Amino acid sequence: METRRIGIIMNGVTGRMGTNQHLERSISAIIQQGGIKVSNDLVLMPDPILTGRNENKLKALAEKYGPPAIGKPYAYTTDVQGALDSKYGDYEIFFDASGTLQRAPFVEMAVAAGKAIYCEKPTAVETKEAVRLAKVVEKAGLKNGVVQDKLWLPGFRKLKMLQELGFFGKILSVRGEFGYWVFSGMDYDQPAQRPSWNYRAEDGGGMMIDMFCHWRYVLDNVFGPVERVVAYGNTDIDERRDEDGKPYAATADDSAYAIFLLQGGLVAQFNSSWCTRVRRDDLLTVQVDGEKGSAVAGLREVWVQGAAETPKPVWNPDIEQPINFYDGWQKVPNNIAYENAFKIQWEEFLRHVALDEPWRYSLMEGAKGVQLAELGMQSWKESKWMDVPELS
Ligand SMILES: NC(=O)c1ccc[n+]([C@@H]2O[C@H](COP(=O)([O-])OP(=O)(O)OC[C@H]3O[C@@H](n4cnc5c(N)ncnc54)[C@H](O)[C@@H]3O)[C@@H](O)[C@H]2O)c1
């Protein structure tokens, strides 16, 4: 049995996503499961080096996550350029989960060093920049990818299964409700729970740039290409407290309302808000209504109601509602084990890099998400429908 080592420079790994989803639940989990078993003869084994600005934070992460996986702390350094120059060993992949506005300079450093590139979304806050970056990487002939994790959520996978089974018949509409209450930090004993840059447009924050990237690849891949968008955003809460407890002006949209028209005329409508309290099945629910049946997907679970089980309500506000509408739905069983979505995408990317397996989640695909966000912002500012042109 051959074990092929794949060196990965993990940059910006001290952040929320870098630590939790990428280091702990993806790369460390893959190492702990014994690598990716490709065949009886070959295992791919990731070998990370952690990079970032703060040596103490890197050391703490290396010492926490290294020993359970490799029996010693992970390698780490604040010298990103040195890691790219093979000063600390050979690493063939550069991964970036730093802040959105830091992405391009890091990716360009990695391109110059000839690394395969994988990074968080969004790749930029403007389409022009996202496309430029994708082209720089393509021109250098480097393998590349962007995180599109939601595609591997059990909820969306089950929706895809239902579609392939023909459960819906003709799909009539898609409706997404996303969000929860993100505390502003202004109230006594109610600290803020997300990084403050998310609420400052000047630092790359904003609901549309954050979430429309996700809605783009979910819609494109599960329901059909997005062709038009109309959107409205708002800054519902304009003052929040940052990580140091200091008040700051929240300048970014923290709620966004959009209608997307997909190829063939299917309508998808998404409400996204950091200022809403949850009374639904999950933090994201997507309802798909079809002629023959409907489904409501949460992150993991999906509930279905077929045409034959659809109740016939009567509008009468003068009496108690006689139907419990939740009763007429069935939960789709978990017939397979669903792994962490980020980890699955990481495994596909590692196989793409090591074995040349097909891969479609490139930086150019990621740029489409930035494009939808930018067109959403433009639609909001100009109060009009926007066409979504092909990127070139
Ligand atoms: N796929 C998803 O579902 C998802 C979810 C949340 C965030 N994200 C994306 O992941 C990225 C990180 O978000 P986060 O929530 O982890 O933010 P975060 O603020 O927790 O982490 C940002 C990281 O970047 C580092 N950083 C900031 N400025 C830097 C600089 N100048 N040089 C080097 N490093 C720098 C920080 O130290 C930190 O490690 C963002 O682009 C965000 O859009 C993706």
Any overview of this molecule?
The protein is α/β, with parallel strands linked by helices. It has 2 domains: 2-148 and 341-347, NAD(P)-binding Rossmann-like Domain (Rossmann fold); 150-340 and 371-382, Dihydrodipicolinate Reductase, domain 2 (2-Layer Sandwich). Helix content is 32%, strand content 24%. The protein is built from 9 helices and 18 strands. Strands 17-16-15-14-8-13-12-9-18 form a 9-stranded mixed sheet. Strands 1, 2, 3, 4, 5, 6 and 7 form a 7-stranded mixed sheet that branches. It is globular and about 75 Å long. The mean pLDDT is 97. Nicotinamide-adenine-dinucleotide is lined by residues 12, 14-18, 52-53, 97-100, 102, 120-122, 147, 149, 195, 197, 210.
Could you name the key traits of this structure?
18 strands; 392 residues; alpha/beta; Dihydrodipicolinate Reductase, domain 2; Rossmann fold; 7-stranded mixed sheet; 2 domains
Distance between the termini: 44 Å
- Ligands: nicotinamide-adenine-dinucleotide
Order of helices and strands: EHEEHEHEHEHEHEHEEEEEEEEEHHE
| Count of runs of 4 or more consecutive helical residues | 9
Q: Over the alpha carbons, how many angstroms does the gyration radius reach? A: 22 Å
Shape category: globular
Q: Give unreliable regions as ranges.
A: none
CATH class of the largest domain: Alpha Beta
CATH architecture of the largest domain: 2-Layer Sandwich
Major sheet: order of its strands? 17-16-15-14-8-13-12-9-18
List the helices and strands and how they pair.
Layout: E1 2-11, H1 16-32, E2 36-37, E3 42-51, H2 55-70, E4 75-77, H3 80-84, E5 93-96, H4 103-112, E6 116-119, H5 127-139, E7 144-146, H6 154-165, E8 171-179, H7 207-223, E9 226-234, E10 239-241, E11 247-249, E12 255-262, E13 267-273, E14 284-290, E15 293-297, E16 302-306, E17 330-331, H8 341-355, H9 363-382, E18 386-387
Parallel strand pairs: 1-3, 1-5, 3-4, 5-6, 6-7, 8-13
Antiparallel strand pairs: 2-3, 8-14, 9-12, 9-18, 10-11, 12-13, 14-15, 15-16, 16-17
Helix pairs in contact: 1-2, 1-8, 4-5, 5-9, 7-9
Bound molecules: nicotinamide-adenine-dinucleotide (NAD).
